[in-house]
Amino acid sequence: MLEKLRPDLLPFRNEVRAFIEEYYPAPMRVTDPYEELDRDQQRLWHAVLHERGWSAAAWPKEYGGPGWSPLKRHIWQQELARANALPLLAFSITMVGPVIYTYGSPEQKQRFLPGILSGDDWWCQGYSEPGAGSDLAKVRTVAERRGDHYVVNGHKTWTTFAQHADWIFALVRTDPAARPQAGISFLLIDMRAPGVTVRPIAMIDGTHEINDVFFDDVVVPLENRIGDENRGWSYAKFLLGNERTGMASTPRSRATLGRLRRLAPAGDNRLQDAIAAVEYDLMALEAVELAALLDHEAGETGEAGLASIFKIRGTEIYQRITELTVRAVGMAGLVNRATRHTTLEVGAAGAPLATQEYLNARKKSIYGGSNEVQRNILASQVLGL
Amino acid sequence: MTNSNPFRDTEVQAMVRDSLRRLLARSYDHAARAGILERADGWSREIWTELAELGLLAMGIGEAAGGIGSGARDISVVSEELGRHLLIEPYCEVAVVAANLIAALEPAESREEKVAALVSGQTVAILANGLDEAMVAKRHGSAFHLSGSNHFIVGAPWADELLIVALLDGEPAVFRVKRDAPGVSLQCFRTLDSRSCAHLDLDAELEADALLATGERVVPALRHAALLRLVAHAGEAAGIMRQAVDATIAYARTREQFGQPIGRFQVLQHRIVDMHVAQREMAALVDALAIAIDSVDEEETLRWAAATRHRLTTSARAVGEEAVQIHGGMGMSEELPIGHQLRRLVAIGIQHAEAA
Q1: Mean per-residue pLDDT for A315-332?
Q2: CA-closest candidate to residue B314, choices B339, B343, B345, B338
Q3: Residue of chain A minimizing CA distance to B299
Q4: Catalytic position from the list A243, A279, A286, A357
């Protein structure tokens, strides 16, 4: 509906659509990009966008963003999803970048932002620990101050693509005596520093996406701390809020729903009814999102709690679409990621990965503050319960 | 293009909302409503007149046709506020459906007068059927004979006149019939959501001036009125849902069991959050539908209408059910609005159930 409400944005849409069609790298057009492409191939698109000045769509112009309005950024996301483009690394562009340009020193901005913009530096997130998941304030990784540096010891986990990363941004405890939230600092740690070990974690969808990261007397210079010592929790909260803004992910759900419709047998009425129902759910979310986008476009902040609503509903709907896709592909859903090349080409394009995508999507209601935590936030901060 | 957000109230809409809130807070609380339901005719002419005097009955009609409205979103704004108080009076049936039909079909020279009669509260007109239940009209010289029947006509017992869809010479036509004319037989009863309703048997001779319109204008006018009816009902549902969520929050904060307010229990917190989310989605869907009607196109309108109807029959009712559950036995009682809200949400859902 946006394109009809705001026809003035049509030239922009056409421009970015044409750009993606022309410049999306051919080597990246594969069925299973995260498994089939190596680290450098996954970054080809980032390099193309960097050259065009579009690698950090949401960043302010002064830090290298394109200066797009909220509606233009949304259209950009819609067009990327429509083209099934591999998303840029969120940990760099969406997460640590904004923390650095918001809270970092001039030296830190100068040092780190260029590598994030260009995609040359690959970042991962050091938040969760074995004993600190949803209850993130319980992090126990310790950074002990010794002169001009910290010595870091601890264990981070669920670290996406740590095996590729040059840097990790980590929450570490700098004051063990303070109450949990008050004693945390936000450190940028070189993954190649002595004492950093990455160990892969095998997951239910057969990917090597996530890892354990161990810190064993890792030396981190003081100048790699963002902002003040022991104020890391507030920077982390800023980042989590930032992370959730795009979490309605309606463009990706729309594109995935389109593929589901192509895969679903026309004569399966019960499946077709279920698809219609999930599309109505998606439309309800799109309506809430469109209203919020138009608020942002007009410079209004919008209503409280929307980020949590987007996270909850966006992930539930995406998961539902992947569930129905498994149903739509029938027996092809039995294909295993590791052996799919040895089996017959079954069904339409995309069908052989349906179950792996469904399994992978289970993470969405867990990460970024689990959906249960989001409901806690809404209950206490918006509904006053 | 301006930056104004069509999902948000204009200045006029905000004023309308405000005056409705004040009026209904003053004169339409749960006890007052219960009193109205005890009356023989089951509605309040006084509140109807007050709504008319505030101009609210004219909000759904464009200025060209004698109203003061600017489109479908005005209807959703008014309906949402009426829903919060479970207004019994036939705003949707008269000020939205009948008034828009008359505004679309009445000849230009009499249009303003006829619309004015409705929106001033003087005359109550109710559409008695749709195309699917069209009656039969035969010409008798310059006069007509209409026959047929229809069931479950909400508001018909309150009507001064009924608008009848009938096939005339094989074409859809709309007639106007006085409710107390010979050959008009109403079997009146109350619906589950306390509306006065009737079955109609019609076998009547009508004068030439009873024919409101025939020809190609009729079908689009009926379709448009049906869409506006959906906006009104869905807007009302969004208002009812808001009230149900707010009442449930208030109850959960004060009702104590096992030594603490039940709102401290996480399982209830999460369920109330889901009610809240469903309400926000319903409100946004109605807005999107109204915006599509007002300023986009037919394709978008039909998409949003389908999604809205689906939610009316699923999540809207679910919010009503959850409000009853969390209120416990009190939610089952007639004493609180909660049960009335569920019945109205169910009734709205029934009226918009998708064809199988």
Answers
A1: 95
A2: B345
A3: A1
A4: A243
pLDDT exceeds cutoff 80 at A345: no
* Stated length of chain B: 356
For residue A384, what is the nearest residue in chain B, using CA coordinates?
B249
- In this prediction, residue A105 carries a pLDDT of 98
Of B7, B269, B295, the CB nearest to A294: B7
Of the candidates B133, B143, B155, the residue with the CA atom closest to the CA atom of residue B201? B133
DSSP B27-44: H-SHHHHHHHHHSSS-S-
pLDDT tens per residue, range A23-80: 999 999 988 888 889 999 999 999 999 999 999 999 999 999 999 999 999 999 999 9
Higher-pLDDT residue of B25 and B62 is: B25
β-bridge mates for residue B196, sequence order:
B190
Rounded (10°) angle between helices B266-295 and B218-254? 160
Q: What residues are paired with A90 via a beta bridge?
A: none
Nearest CA in chain B to A274: B310
Confidence of residue A261 (pLDDT cuts 50, 70, 90): very high
Q: How confident is the model at residue A242 (pLDDT cuts 50, 70, 90)?
A: low
- Cα B127 to Cα B176: distance, rounded to the nearest angstrom: 9
Q: CA torsion A128→A130→A133→A135, rounded to 10°? A: -110
pLDDT at residue A245, as a whole number: 54
Q: Which of A280, A298, A309 minimises the CB distance to B307?
A: A280
Of B270, B280, B292, the CB nearest to A375: B270
Residue A300 annotated to the active site:
no
Q: Which residues in chain A have their CB less than 8 angstroms from residue B326's CB? A: none
Q: What is the ipTM of this complex?
A: 0.95
B282/A284 CB distance under 8 A: yes
Look at residue B350 in the predicted model and tell me its pLDDT.
96
Chain B residues close to A379, C-beta within 8 Å: 266, 269-270, 272-273
Per-residue pLDDT of B255-308, as tens digits, reads: 999 999 999 999 999 999 999 999 999 999 999 999 999 999 999 999 999 999
From the CA of A287, how many Å to the nearest CA of chain B? 5
Spatial separation of the C-alpha atoms in residues A96 and A170, rounded to whole Å? 10
Predicted confidence band at B1 (pLDDT cuts at 50, 70, 90)?
A: very low
* Distance, CA of A121 to CA of A164 (rounded, Å): 10
Q: Determine whether the interchain pair B5/A300 forms a contact, defined as Cβ–Cβ distance below 8 Å.
A: yes
CB B231 within 8 A of CB B293: yes
User: How far B281 CA lies from chain A's nearest CA (Å)?
Assistant: 5
